[in-house]
Amino acid sequence: MDKKKFVKILIWTPIILLALLNFATVFTPEIGFDALWYHLTLPKLWLLKHQWHFNGGLLYYSVMPRLTETIFIPLIKYTGYIGPKLLQFFSALGTGFLIWKMCSKLKLTFLMKSLAVSLFYCTWLVSWESGSAYVDLFRTFLESAALYYFVFGSKKVGSLFLGLALGTKWLSLGSLAIYALIFGPSLIFPAMLIASPWFFLAYHYTGNPIYPLFDPIIRSNSLTLIWLILKNILLLPFVITLPFDDFLSPMVGILYLLCLLCLFSQNKAVRQIALVGILGSLFSVSLNPPSSRYLLPYFPALIVASVYLVSQLKARFRTSFIVLVIFSSILILCLRLIAFQKYLPFLSGKQDLNNFLTHYSARLPDTFIDTDGYVAQNLPNDSKILIDKLHNLYYFPYSFDHTSWADSNTAYDYLITQDTLPQEESGELIHTNSVGIQIYKLK
Fold first, then answer.
1. Residue 245's pLDDT is what?
2. Alpha-carbon distance 31 to 34, whole Å?
3. Distance in angstroms (rounded) separating the CA atoms of residues 379 and 364
4. Which of 22, 58, 80, 120 has the fewest CB within 10 Å, making it most exposed?
């Protein structure tokens, strides 16, 4: 076997193994906090209650852009959490394909294009989100498609994809500003037009078309925030590399530094892509609280520009870069294999859903888990049920109200709660399960 073929095998083996691992994870129970809080719960509640907006504390995100969660509605109806996970799985593959296409437009070799795909797909964050019901990968796919069309195709099509990204997360308003700065303000109107239903919904329910942005619910100390932003910008290569919440890969800081050099490239397309990556990185670390998930939509731009620059360097530098990419991909694969082991009893049939969730209940704080099936087996599905002191409610089997939006005039049949003293409640405690969830029959 010649050397080049061996290197290609080393690059593609972790990609393929991670894709298989991620696909298997699609069929495992969802344990992601935000997914169980609102990404899955909101579409499930729509199916149960046909209600879009929920007043008050718990589901204040209910009038944020929800394009992905709207797509989840039929997927949850027919597949449960599997369909939403599949959407994220294919979004990651789709983004990898777009990275390959952008590298092809820049006339990079098969080896360089393979490195670019590896740099995206062989990351911790992309891998675990590929088997989750979060929305960041779908947003990343949409913004990567927008980038592709703005640089290499039709700006009208790019605006369409950017508008769809706005319909996925308000944070894409930052992307809209970045793209308008680089590719011209003419893209703003069509993108905003595509996203306009979400503005109208937010305004209708809250009076704020970009709720919850600038709402007291997410305000923080301005001086503290300014210091945090300055610190993150000054230390950006380290901030985005270190696993302060969700680890990407050891290569991210290096890619950012390489991307800075791409601003001096003679290739206009490379300069534009690099500028998206740099401005996007600056924007992502300026948010509070910071998260590597916010960097994900700009990660493909960092990768494509950096790999293009490496392709222009001397052979010894390219070799060093290739070695680092292979090392990084193998490291991430090993970490993901270790993390995946917890799902083996479930996938092998030794655990059912409730047993799995109960076993990992310590990692699922304030999540409803019907450990012994009592709710599903003993509460009538047409009961009026009130839930209190629980936060993540996707796994509750029936329609319910939460105390943060409940109607005080409704006579509820049951209260589901935790950590209460029976003598202080107005009902009869009829059951407490193994994770401390209490069920009261209300008088």
1. 67
2. 9
3. 23
4. 80
Burial annotation 180-195 (CB, 10 A radius, 16+ → b, else e): eebbeeebbebbbebb
Range from 2-16, 117-131, 227-241, 369-383 carrying the lowest mean pLDDT: 227-241
CA distance 305 to 417: 52
Please give the sequence-ordered ranges of beta strands (E in DSSP) within 53-109, or none if there are none: none
Q: What is the mean pLDDT of residues 241-267?
A: 90
Task: List pLDDT tens digits, range 22-66.
Answer: 999 999 999 999 999 999 999 999 999 999 999 878 998 899 999
224: which residues sit within 8 A by CB, 6+ positions away? none
| pLDDT confidence of residue 222 | 65
CA distance 248 to 47: 35
Q: Are strands 427-432 and 437-442 parallel, antiparallel or unpaired?
A: antiparallel
Tokens at residue 314, please?
A: 């001397």
How deeply is 217 buried, as exposed, middle or buried, from its count of CB atoms within 10 A (0-12, 13-18, 19+)? exposed
66-80, 198-212, 243-257: the lowest-pLDDT one: 243-257
Distance CA 164, CA 157 (A): 11
- On the question of pLDDT at 350 being above 60, the answer is yes
- Selection from 391, 441, 437 nearest residue 411 by Cα: 441
**323 and 334 Cβ atoms separated by less than 8 Å:** no
Dist CA 134 CA 124 (whole Å): 14
The values of phi and psi at residue 406, to 5°, are -60, 150
Pairing mode, strands 437-442 and 414-418? antiparallel
Q: Specify the 3-state DSSP secondary structure of 385.
A: strand
CA distances from 285 to 75, 129, 406 (A): 33, 20, 37
Bond into 190 cis (ω within 30): no
d(CA 392, CA 418): 13
285 CB-near residues (< 8 Å, 6+ apart) = 229, 232, 233, 236, 239, 240, 295
CA distance 48 to 68: 18
* Tens-place pLDDT, residues 309-329: 999 999 899 999 999 999 999
